[in-house]
Amino acid sequence: FMATMIWKESRDEEYLGLAKVYYKTNKPQKVIKYYKEALRENPSNYIVLLELAKFSDNYYKDKSIAQKYYQQYINKFEFKNKENDSLVHKRLSQIKKILFLEGKPIE
């Protein structure tokens, strides 16, 4: 059992590749599924979390879903990439305004 754990390779890049394929074939549920799988395989892959946040932002009408992923990005990966941090903070601010105007709770 331990040998399996030690030698198990992360497949996050493969799942990320599948997400991109499904994006190109316009299968959004599969895109989300494989972004989540990639994140489960490698929770420290900040690119996957950012892509999941951006895709959720574009796909779901309910912006609280994207807000959750953007906030997770900030909580786990802030200061990892200045450009991404700026984008995420800006979008979180916009989403909070949208949710406020819709009368929804803001986390």
Please specify the SSE layout and strand pairing:
Layout: H1 2-7, H2 12-24, H3 28-41, H4 46-59, H5 63-77, H6 82-101
Helix pairs in contact: 2-3, 3-4, 4-5, 5-6
Find the count of extended strands (DSSP E, 2+ residues).
0
Low-confidence stretches: 1-5
Number of helices: 6
**Mean residue pLDDT:** 91
Q: What general form does the structure show? A: globular
SSE class:
mainly alpha
C-alpha end-to-end distance: 41 Å
Strand content: under 5%
Helix content: over 70%
Q: What is the chain-wise order of helices and strands?
A: HHHHHH
Structure in words:
The protein has 107 residues and is mostly helical. It has helices spanning 2-7, 12-24, 28-41, 46-59, 63-77, 82-101. Helix 2 (12-24) runs antiparallel to helix 3.
Question: Nutshell version of this structure?
Answer:
The chain is mainly alpha-helical and 107 residues long. It is built from 6 helices and no strands.
Tags for this entry?
single chain, 107 residues, mainly alpha, disordered N terminus
